[in-house]
Design goal:
Blueprint: H1 2-18, H2 21-27, H3 30-36, E1 44-45, E2 66-73, E3 81-88
Parallel strand pairs: 1-3
Antiparallel strand pairs: 2-3
Length: 89
């Protein structure tokens, strides 16, 4: 029981520190985007998410900014998906 409470407390702490970005990172993975758009992973073009707003990037701490995924499809081929990152201050 103590192990479960420890993991739960750790997960809660991570959710608070990352301000919900942990869920967004999972939701915007290449494989998940491919499933959402019913396409193959090879047709999803997703650059790495910028890290300059992350809590653990120097200087350590909350930076009051984040990046949001902006997802578009190719107008000529709806099975090709592009992900761009937009900075939110």
């Amino acid at each position: 029981m103590n192990t479960f409470l420890g993991w739960f407390a750790f997960a809660l702490l991570m959710a608070i520190i990352t301000d919900g970005e942990l869920f967004e990172r999972i939701w915007n993975r290449k494989a998940v985007i491919a499933m959402r758009f019913s396409t193959q992973s090879e047709k999803v073009y997703r650059p790495k998410r910028p890290t300059e707003c992350d809590f653990l990037t120097a200087p350590l701490g909350i930076k009051h900014c984040s990046y949001e995924a902006f997802i578009t499809t190719d107008p000529n081929d709806e099975k090709t998906v592009y992900v761009n990152w937009i900075r939110k201050d």
